[in-house]
Amino acid sequence: MSLHNALEVVNLIQHHKTPRGMLRAVDGISLNVGKGETLGLVGESGCGKSSLARCIAGLTTPQSGGVVIDGHEARDTHRRDRLNRARAIQMVFQDPMSSLNSRLTIAAIIEQPLKVHGIGNAASRRARAKDLLSAVGLGEHHLSKFPHELSGGQRQRVSIARALALEPGLIICDEAVSALDVSVQAQVLNLLNDLQARLGVAYLFISHDLSVVRYVSDRIAVMYLGRLVEVGPAESVWQNRLHPYTRALIASIPDDDDRREIPFLSGDVPSPIDPPPGCAFAARCPMAQDICRQSRPELDATARAHAAACHFPGVAP
Amino acid sequence: MTSSTRASASAEALPAPLLAVTSLALDADPSSPLIEDLSFTLDRGETLAIVGESGCGKSLTSLAVMQLLPTNLARSARGKIRLDGEDLTRMKPRQLQRLRGDRMAMIFQEPLTALNPVMSVGAQIAEVLRDHRGLSRAVALSRAETLLGMVGIPDPGARLGDHPHQLSGGMRQRVTIAMAMACEPDLIIADEPTTALDVTVQAQILRLLADLQARSGMAMIMITHDLGVVRQVADRMVVMYAGTMVEEGRVADVLTRPHHPYTAGLIAARPSGAFKQDGRKLNDIPGMVPAPSARPAGCLFQPRCAQARPDCAAARPEVAEDAGGTAPRRWRCFHPLNRPEPGEES
């Protein structure tokens, strides 16, 4: 309905100086997430998924590039800018035990964002905390408990309730279900889908678990060494797999129903410090040619259609 | 057929299994049992997966088999654990030490904590061979190089002097596998060996374990929470819930026709094979695993079970068995699913 996307990221760059060279954590990423949409972001450890999430949420300041939230460019110059950004984007982290303050009650944890933003009075905040808790499927008797008294799944529900408190347009779920057992993971995934249907919140859903990403995402983006290598509608990415890295990732899922016979990927993800020129994946790619080692393939990730950063997209090895 | 019988005195199979765990029980204190009445066997060359969610007792089971339980738990242990007919629970510490690393070995989830950070990986592998085989330092090191090559580490000679922090996670796990394989054990226990690894590296490690197993004929217990891993590597599987075995059988049978509602719930909770557009709701299992001190009366799964009936809360179901043919099945449920004749005997 709305003209604007929930989130637009334009050529975001986040490099860190290290003693061994320049670490290119986020190396020129553009993407967008529509309102009420889920964009799944997959990639292996060290590919820069979490760095990207932190840049988008404003927890770290990128070197360059822009983050546009619901049509407004996010700035961090004033406290007011940062507060506005927090109202628009919230995060749910992997480990609720370390992302929830262990000395606060559940009520205080959920009320805190409201307090910081000066919303309501004590009574109305308590009432809101109760509503939020019931929205994530927990009874109000939990309000006076502490995080250690809850199970892992319940703690993650509290994280979600806290993220919802300011009614953000976008929630970044950074490995939000990865630490949960499969039966509890299913509860939380169902909850996230229900909340999206009811509230229209958009998700940037970051995970290394491809079957989970496939299940929750409208679109999927695949990240490798600080860059996006493929993006497109979930079904199209899964069925057509333009980039050889995407093909290798999906083929690596143990006993996936859609497994196709392709060579296993050898070696590990190379270091993001001073990556070679050309395609970052060329060193592990079974079909790399000379051009792959010389010129870097680009990706137009803002296009809605399915695209890949590969000189030979969709070519079987 | 009338092959379905209550298993109380199941006859020993003809060839003795490599590993036989009989009526294993463990508790931290008598009011909170951690493992109750667990029995399973493992044949030579076979892979058995033990599956369950956190707190179900699968890692304790592997530590019990290795006789590596903390002393307070070890003292509470009951039941028999026989490796090749010898009862490990009656062995002296020195005998066990000779056995561990030689005839049975273990691979852990987190190789960085399993390896010694201040010792080169070559020396760590060589240590196993020097202790168990009495090899000289030089011979043990050259054997360590061969082992590193065998587990797929490129340029193994140059890696011998590396310390664990210099290797990637996948390479470290290969080193722990090389250590476990050093004395060509009869039994390897792999406790979530790929859970900490990326999916492309996981695929490499699972394939490596399968290759090594095919070449050496060792038996393997794969402890995992991932049904995809089970389907890829295992012949048979044991499903555990709250410290008990709830189902056992051949992997293909259990995953296609689960008898226990918990197994069925686990299978349906996996998001595999669905897109968001399909609009399929995942089958979640309501509630959570009960704490050892708060286990319910009757069937342990009954408070979370959609199929529960009044009798489920009245008594704890015994293990039922269908010994039919080549693929025996066992389950612990009064009202099993996917049975030709529902077990309604009362």
Structure characteristics:
heterodimer; A: alpha/beta; seven-stranded mixed β-sheet; four-stranded antiparallel β-sheet; 33% helix; globular; B: 346 residues; alpha/beta; Rossmann fold; nine-stranded mixed β-sheet; 13 helices
Topology, pairings included?
The complex is a heterodimer of chains A (317) and B (346).
Chain A: E1 7-18, E2 21-33, E3 38-42, H1 49-57, E4 64-69, E5 72-73, H2 79-88, E6 89-92, H3 96-99, H4 106-116, H5 122-135, H6 152-164, E7 170-174, H7 182-199, E8 202-207, H8 210-216, E9 219-224, E10 227-233, H9 234-240, H10 244-251, H11 290-294, E11 307-308
Parallel strand pairs in A: 3-8, 3-9, 6-7, 7-8
Antiparallel strand pairs in A: 1-2, 1-4, 4-5, 9-10, 10-11
Helix pairs in contact in A: 4-5, 4-6, 5-6
Chain B: E1 4-6, E2 19-29, E3 32-42, E4 47-51, H1 58-66, H2 71-76, E5 78-83, E6 86-87, H3 93-99, E7 104-107, H4 111-114, H5 121-133, H6 137-150, H7 156-159, H8 169-181, E8 187-191, H9 199-216, E9 219-224, H10 227-233, E10 236-241, E11 244-250, H11 251-256, H12 261-269, H13 310-314, E12 320-322, E13 329-331
What does this structure look like?
The complex is a heterodimer of chains A (317) and B (346). Chain A has one domain: Rossmann fold, CATH 3.40.50. Chain A is built from eleven helices and eleven strands. Chain A has helices at residues 49-57, 79-88, 96-99, 106-116, 122-135, 152-164, 182-199, 210-216, 234-240, 244-251, 290-294; strands spanning 7-18, 21-33, 38-42, 64-69, 72-73, 89-92, 170-174, 202-207, 219-224, 227-233, 307-308. The longest helix of chain A has 18 residues, at 182-199. The radius of gyration of chain A is 20 Å and the shape is globular. The model of chain A has no long low-confidence stretch (mean pLDDT 89). Chain B has a domain at 17-103 and 185-331: P-loop containing nucleotide triphosphate hydrolases (Rossmann fold, 3-Layer(aba) Sandwich), CATH 3.40.50. Chain B is built from 13 helices and 13 strands. Chain B has helices at 58-66, 71-76, 93-99, 111-114, 121-133, 137-150, 156-159, 169-181, 199-216, 227-233, 251-256, 261-269, 310-314; strands at residues 4-6, 19-29, 32-42, 47-51, 78-83, 86-87, 104-107, 187-191, 219-224, 236-241, 244-250, 320-322, 329-331. In chain B, helix 5 crosses helix 6 (137-150), helix 6 packs across helix 8 (169-181) and helix 8 (169-181) runs parallel beside helix 9 (199-216). Chain B is globular, with a radius of gyration of 21 Å. Residues 1-13 of chain B have low confidence and may be disordered.
